């Protein structure tokens, strides 16, 4: 991965062999090189801790205000890139008004969204019915996407995947399946988180900056690859970088939140 022309201001460059130290240095360097970077942040498992259900997610008090200040530091070049619907992501971080890509990049604020096709609505109804008759499996309606969460019933994984494969066959080729942490999702096939950050980088105030992508899940790998292809960096939230295109990491969302608070203090 190509590294920014200006190295992070750390006394011991050998510490960057530690991916956690590298991530900390990258983030702490932002105030000094804020005109060079554009930041792209996943939400669930990255900015906020995972919960047993999507509705159980808690946005830490003060986080929207800190993101607003960080966006100002970066000249507005900060965006949320999430699997949640655009409307739900906006509501979570009110009163902050940030650029957002929803549904893994299929929804961008200001872009026209087509009405859901009939076959998709039939597939969604079938998945909702499956969740109703399978205690421990939760159905999440995202509008032009839906998901089955089985965190509460891990042994249902095979049944969930069969159900979602049937939903895909019903919905048609304009949709695709997306796997995540204890979740299977059917979403539009157009775009992913990588194409979402490419779209942001093509317009002001992101244009001409290096992308810094931060995420935790399989869906964020497209974002990490896109950042690397453009000379930027990827920071993964979690215990390991194994199998990831990111080269730096932080252990938990709490560690990321603490660093963001430090930057904008």
From TrEMBL:
Residue ranges of the TM segments: none
Q: Which cofactors does it use?
A: Mg(2+)
Keyword set, alphabetical order: Hydrolase, Magnesium, Metal-binding
EC assignment? 3.1.3.12
Q: In which pathway does it act?
A: Glycan biosynthesis; trehalose biosynthesis
Q: What start-end ranges are recorded for coiled-coil regions in this protein?
A: none
Domain of life from the UniProt record: Bacteria
Which reaction is this enzyme known to catalyze? alpha,alpha-trehalose 6-phosphate + H2O = alpha,alpha-trehalose + phosphate
Which class of enzymes does this protein belong to? Answer: hydrolase
Q: In the record, what terms sit under GO molecular function?
A: metal ion binding; trehalose-phosphatase activity
One Pfam family it belongs to = Trehalose_PPase
Q: Name one GO biological process term.
A: trehalose biosynthetic process
Q: What does this protein do?
A: Removes the phosphate from trehalose 6-phosphate to produce free trehalose.
Q: Which NCBIfam families match?
A: HAD-SF-IIB, T6PP
Query: Record's family?
Result: Belongs to the trehalose phosphatase family.
Name of the molecule in the record:
Trehalose 6-phosphate phosphatase
Q: Can you name the source organism?
A: Haematobacter missouriensis
What gene does this protein come from? otsB
């Amino acid at each position: 991965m190509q590294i920014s022309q200006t190295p992070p201001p750390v006394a011991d460059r050998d510490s960057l062999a530690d991916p956690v130290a590298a991530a900390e240095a990258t983030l702490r360097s932002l105030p000094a090189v804020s005109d060079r970077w554009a930041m792209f942040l996943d939400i669930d498992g990255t900015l906020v801790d995972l919960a047993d259900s999507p509705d159980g997610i808690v946005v830490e008090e003060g986080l929207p205000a800190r993101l607003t200040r960080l966006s100002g530091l970066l000249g507005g070049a900060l965006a949320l890139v999430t699997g949640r619907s655009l409307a739900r992501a906006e509501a979570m971080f009110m009163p902050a008004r940030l650029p957002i890509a929803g549904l893994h990049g299929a929804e961008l604020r200001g872009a026209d969204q087509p009405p859901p096709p009939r076959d998709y609505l039939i597939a969604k109804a079938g998945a909702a019915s499956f969740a109703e008759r399978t205690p421990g499996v939760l159905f999440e309606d995202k509008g032009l996407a839906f998901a089955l969460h089985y965190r509460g019933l891990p042994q249902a994984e095979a049944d969930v995947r069969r159900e979602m494969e049937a939903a895909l066959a019903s919905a048609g080729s304009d949709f695709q399946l997306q796997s995540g942490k204890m979740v299977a999702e059917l979403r539009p096939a157009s775009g992913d988180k990588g194409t979402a950050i490419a779209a942001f980088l093509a317009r002001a105030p992101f244009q001409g900056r290096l992308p810094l992508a931060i995420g935790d899940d399989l869906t964020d790998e497209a974002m990490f690859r896109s950042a690397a292809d453009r000379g930027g960096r990827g920071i993964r939230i979690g215990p390991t970088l194994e199998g990831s295109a990111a080269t730096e990491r932080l252990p938990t969302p709490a560690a990321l939140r603490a660093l963001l608070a430090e930057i904008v203090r």
